[in-house]
Each structure stands twice: as structure tokens, then as C-alpha cells.
Amino acid sequence: MARVKFLCDADRCIECNACVTACKNEHEVPWGINRRRVVTINDGKPGERSVSMACMHCTDAPCAAVCPVSCFYTTADGVVLHSKDLCIGCGYCFYACPFGAPQYPKVGNFGSRGKMDKCTYCAGGPEADSTPAEYAKYGANRLAEGKLPICAEMCSTKSLLAGDGAIIAEIYKERVMKRGYGSGMWRWKTAYADSPTG
Amino acid sequence: MKKPSPALRRRSRNTENRKGVVQMPGSLSTLKAPTLKALCAALALLFVVAQPASAQLSFKPTAEAVQEDKLLNALKEGDKISGRITIPDTNAANLIQPAGRDWRDFHRSKLPVIGGIAILGMLALLAIFLMVRGRIRPESGFSGTKILRFASFERFTHWLTASCFIVLALSGLNISFGRILILPLFGADAFATMSGYAKIAHDYLAFPFMLGVLIMFLIWIKDNIPGKIDWQWLKQGGGIVSKGSHPPAKRFNAGQKGIFWIVIIGGTLMSLSGWYMLFPYLPANVTELQFWTVIHAVIAMLFIAAMLAHIYIGSIGMEGAFDAMGTGEVDLNWAKEHHSLWVEEEQAKGHAPAAGGSHAMPAE
Amino acid sequence: MKVFIAAVVFAVIAAFVASFVLSGVQMASYTAFTTSGARVGDPGNNLVGPG
Asked: Do B183 and A69 touch, CB atoms closer than 8 A?
């Protein structure tokens, strides 16, 4: 079974935010919820790099470990999803996530922040696949249709790669060899501790 | 290939020159004058030669480019890698915060140990104490005469704080341990629903709890200043271990003063840390928020352990003690044995009956 | 007993009052993070549910 991952090639990312726009459009993500975002390191200085960041669907997901109601689950493909029916909006997953992926619809009050929302790898949630109920809660389910996440599909420079972890790691390595440099597989060591190099 | 007739030859800029070679537009070879061509070539060469020496080396992006490894290694404890974003929420600027991993370890590995030892340890200690020492009874029995110990408002404040504390403690323990202990018993849906209500209760009962702690501080601070008598009381173990030992004490003995300060200090820390969790955008960033959750969790465990001891001694641990908060009036003999100096003060003020006999009503 | 009941009732009432005050202070993300460059009307309820 394929173990899917995200890889952002920071040397190719031009901060166009196509990934962000695609995600927002595909799932009708309301303003204030940032499933995917682009962070720029050393902005304006030599060696500036941009990284597209969303939930990495970690191997040993810290969000799942700290959730008081255990609302997370990992699918067979390695996608980390959660149930908004069980979520009590306490915010613990946000404290534990190394990447700040969990988002909340409201800003105050431990526990009445609303249900946590995050990148689903375009794989929906526990509701039945590709139903309006699932769309209203979790957004589109592209994986059920055999497609890859829309952010990676829309990336203008193909810096954001999504798919089988081994394959995209291989693609990145080829790139590094060909061009002679690479700023690293950002966040792989943190997220995929079991196989940081693919 | 047959050359097209002159009439059909395209007059585009990409035209063959006289020698039949197709040229790109703008190339030097389209210039007719040989001298002009040579001049332009010379100028171009000048530009190349005039460059500073370093620019002639191949461009090395790796030399200055950010490398994830380097950034991660340079991070200090609690630091984050962050950058520039276009989102108004400043939390989004964090790219990697490794402290989340330590926070996760603490909450799933260390905190259960701290909580388990504190709470279960205290319960075990209390059970052993009950078995060994038994229930503490007044040696001279009950006299039947009562003395007023706590007025209605004091008892109201105590029960306000105490009842809130019970619900807060249980709902808080549910957050820390519910997943391990209760979820397997009831299943995910029921547990999540219950936890949702528990969390609501926890959020909102915190406010009357804070009010209760504040009032307690104001009305009882003057009787809870530590003094020399407390040291004597402590040296004799509070008389709790051996029968027949009744070190003198004023209104509150050293043990009670300890509980008072635990409640005030612990309650304040819980309130402060809880406040930051209630308003998650109040702290500067997620690292500070993690700090406050750790404070909240650790103090909670110790606080609960201390309150278990307090509840024990005030209920089954000591006969006659509960009346103080139940009806407000305690038996005179009980009071003389445990708070002898306080009884003398009250008798001097005329608030308490002299030994035995008349059932004098307190002036207040 | 009366005092205990009074205390519990007071606690529950205080909790309700606190809930109203807190809901008044509560802000949706799209209101909290409005900037001069982007003012948002109702962004819809997809993913976040009503309210």
C-alpha cells in the first residue's frame, strides 16, 4: 500500500500561492481558515526560500496522540484525518502540531473555538465518500476518485509534490543531483521520522 | 529544396540574408556596416571584461540559501523556524515548532506519571492513615454545647469554591485521563459528547471558582498569617499522630493555613494559566501557550492531591470537623481540643459560652 | 444545607452569566483577521458549520 506524503521543493517555489488558491477553491474554505499557506524564509535576503505548508500527515501524528477525545485516525494510505463529530475544539492538537496545521473557526475560549479543521490530503473524512455531507464538513474527496491533492496538481513550478512517499522522494533526489543543490526536504525529518529520506 | 521565387519570398524579419543563411532577428550579422558590427562586438566584450572577478565564478545558491538542517540545528530550546506570510494570523508564520513534540511527550508520558503518583499516592496515604490511626475523636467526648465557628457568608464562599472545584477537577481529569480510562468503557461517541459538556462546564464554572478564591482570600487572610504557634504545632505533628496530644492553635492551625495558601496560590496559578487557555491569542505565541498548559496540568494534579487530604480530614478523618462548614457551629469540647486559643478569644469577646452549661447564642 | 444549595445555585448562575459574556467577546476567525485589504462578508459555512 502506498504511503502518501507531501514534499515542497523550496528551491522551486516561487510563492505564487496557487496551491493556497486551489485548496481554498476546491473545498470552499472560509476566510480565516488556512489549510495551506506559503511561508517565506529570509524574505528579501539572498537565499530566500518559500515553502508551501499544510498538514504533513505525519507518521506518528502528535495531534492524534494528544487529542483528549481521540478523534483522529490514519487511513491505510497514511493520511491523517479526524472526525468533526467527536472534536470538542479544545485546541490541544494545535499545541502539539510542529507545523501549526490545525485551524479553528473562532479565536477565543478553549473549547468553544468550533471544530478543528485542517488539510485532509483531499481525502475527506469519516463520512461516506463524495457525498454532500462529507463536502460540507471536510471538503472534496479527490483521493476517493483516484486523484491527487489539488494543491500539488496546481503547483505552477511543480515544487509541491504529493503522492507516494518513495516516488516523490526519488523525484526530489533526481532534481538535486541534476541541479547540484537542494535546501532539503523541508519538514520530512519532523513529520516522517520513520523514513525521513523517503 | 527548391528556392521559392522572389515574388513569393516572405518579407519577415527572419529572412535569409544574401548568403542564404536564416538569421534570428536582432542578430549582429544583420547589420550591414562592418565597422558598426565590429564596434558593437567590442562594446560587448568590454562589458564582459569589466565585470568584477567574483561574478565570473558560477552562481552558488547553496552558499546563501536557507537549509532546513542548518536552521533546525541552530534552534534553541523552545524556538521556532518562522518566516514571512501574507496571512493576518501571526500564528501562521511558524513553519516548524519542535517544542510541540516535547509538549506531546510531556502530556502523554510525564503528566500521567505525575498525576498518578500525586492522586493515587495521596489516596493510598489517606487509606493507610485511616487504617492505622482511625477516625480522630474528641477525647472528652461531645459536650452538647455549640460555638459558632463559621458565619453563613463564610460557609457560602467555601461551598461555592468547593463545588466548583469538584466539577473543575473532574472535567479537567477527564481531559488528561478520560481517553485512557473512560473512553474504552463508553465508546467514542458517548465519550466525546460527555467530554463536550464537561469542557463547557470547565470553561464556565471557572469564573465562580475564581470569584470564590478571591472572596476567600479577602475574608480569611487575616487569620492565616503564619506565626510562632504554627511552628510549635507542626513540631508536635499537629497532634494528629498520637492520641492525647493537642497543641494549641488559634482559629486556623498550621495545617489549615497550609491548605489556605495552597488554595490561594494554586487557585491563582490555575486561574492565570486557565485564562491564557481561554483566550489563546492572549499569549504571544504557541510556545507561551504550551508553557501555560503545562503549569495548568501540573498544578492541577498537586492541587487535587492536596484537596483530597483536606476533604478527608474534614469529613471522615475527624469527627466533629464537618459541622464547621455544615452548620457553622461546632461542639465546644471539640473546639477546645483543636483550637484552644481561638475558643479563649471567642469567650473573651463574649461570642462563646463558657465551659458546658448555658447555650449562649453568639452576638452576631 | 441551605447555604450549600445557595452556593451551587449561585455557581450555576454565575457560569451562565460568564457564558454570555464570553460569547460576546468571542470572534469568528474571519472577523478577527480582517485586514484593510480584505474585508469579508459572510464567508459561508462550508467546513465550519453554522454559527
From this structure: yes
- CB-nearest to B163 from C11, C19, C34 is C11
How close is the nearest chain C Cα to the Cα of A100, in Å? Answer: 15
- What's the one-letter identity of residue B299? I
% of chain C residues with pLDDT over 90: 33
CB atoms within 10 A of CB B70: 11
Going by C-alpha positions, the residue among A91, B82, A108, B84 that lies closest to residue C32 is A108
User: Using CA atoms in the order C20, C24, C25, C30, what is the torsion angle rounded to 10 degrees?
Assistant: 130
Structural class in CATH, domain A4-191: alpha beta
Q: Tell me the average pLDDT across A124-138.
A: 90
* Residue B31 vs residue B228, higher pLDDT: B228
SS (H, E, C) chain A: CCCEEEEECCCCCCCCCHHHHHHHHHHCCCCCCCCCEEEEECCCCCCCEEEEECCCCCCCCHHHHHCCCCCEEECCCCCEEECCCCCCCCCHHHHHCCCCCCECCECCCCCCCCCCECCCCCECCCCCCCCHHHHHHHCCECHHHCCCCHHHHHCCCCCEEEEEHHHHHHHHHHHHHHHCCCCCCCCHHHHCCCCCCC
* Beta-strand relationship, B81-82 and A160-164: unpaired
Best CA proximity match to A160, nearest among A51, A40, A49, A24: A51
Q: How does pLDDT run across B263-278, given as a tens digit for each residue? A: 999 999 999 999 998 8
pLDDT in tens, A52-109: 999 999 999 999 999 999 999 999 999 999 999 999 988 899 999 999 999 988 887 6
Q: Do the beta carbons of residue C45 and residue A31 sit within 8 Å?
A: no
CA distance B187 to B113: 24
Q: Where are chain A's structural domains?
A: 4-191
pLDDT at residue B359 greater than cutoff 50:
no
Distance between CA atoms of residues B356 and B348, nearest Å: 16
Rounded to whole angstroms, the Cα distance separating A105 from C29 reads 5
Residues constituting chain A: 198
Q: Which residues of C touch A139 (CB under 8 A)?
A: 46-47
Q: Is B128 helix (H, G, I), strand (E, B) or coil?
A: helix
CB contact under 8 A, B159 and C32: no
Paired sense of beta strands B81-82 and B94-96, if any: antiparallel
Check pLDDT > 70 for residue B189.
Answer: yes
Using the 8-state DSSP alphabet, how is residue B293 labeled?
Answer: H
CB contact under 8 A, B156 and C35: no
pTM metric for this prediction: 0.82
Contact B188 A86 (CB under 8 A): yes
Interface touch A67/B104, C-beta < 8 Å: no
Chain A contact for B216, CB < 8 A?
no
- Banded pLDDT at B14 (limits 50, 70, 90): very low
pLDDT classification of C47: cutoffs 50, 70, 90: confident
